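sorry for the late reply, my laptop died twice this morning and i had to redo everyting from scratch. anyway the thing you sent over, i finally got around to it. pasting the sequence first so we're on the same page, its 297 residues, then the predicted structure underneath. double check i copied it right bc i was rushing
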Amino acid sequence: MKKNVEFYSEGSLVKGILYLPDNYKENEKIPAILLCHGFAGVKELLLPNYAEEFCENGFIALTFDYRGFGESEGQPGKLSPPAQITDIRNAITFLQSLPEVDPNKLGLWGTSFGGANAIAAAGLDKRIKCLSIQLAFGDGERVITGNLSTEEKEKLNTTIMKIWTRAVTQNKMMQVPIHKVLTDEQSIEFYNKTVDKHPELNIKIPFLTIMETMEHKPEKYLESIHIPILIIAAENDKVNPKEESETLYQKANEPKELHIVKGASHYEIYEGEFFKEAAAKQLAWFNKYLPHGMGDI
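ok and here's the structure:
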């Protein structure tokens, strides 16, 4: 069973979908998993398969649109990692308020950019008891500039500074269509085949999102995270290469596990056999560290 829900994040209305197990018993309090979507994504895209899998196996699941995306209020297309991390924490508060949820058994799941956000949120918020991320990155600057020459990096930094200065001195914020900032073939192909079905993806985002992403370094939070963390990578990921997941694993505290889905690219992990493989690992992780029943963990 699923239903539309809403809550507020710093005054803006956030829209979500709550998945409740069909065998839920009245007055029962059960573990819940919050799912965080990726770069400029929406709750109806890519996440439902995972939410339904968790729900069918006894967990409450919540998906939501960050402020500025999908059905949520906020400045359209404004992608700010600190703001999205705040949205995640407010979603956790919302989950804790629900009578069906065990407030001491909250899991966090994030994919791609949402995985990076989930790491940061878990580093800040001790209410999160278990973490599962996939296709994530540890250092936004490393991902964006890692394959650029010194000259290309200097050109990018010069462009960012010019646009930043114009925004500050003239109140002119450069907005670019999202497809203009997609540089890897996997993302371009996915966007082109998906945008007609999900026109809400056809938005503009601030060019300075690139700067904010470069400054987003979730791996720095890992030292302060002392909850179980499962890291899933796709072997042929060209968006956030598997080396990012390997670095996250090396820096993470125990208990931790790294699983690489062989043969999969970034967007192939959301359906079919690759999805089944990833979801099975994640479900086992949540079952182990967010067990049903009375008591804290």
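The chain has a mean pLDDT of 95.
thats about all i looked at so far, will dig more tmrw
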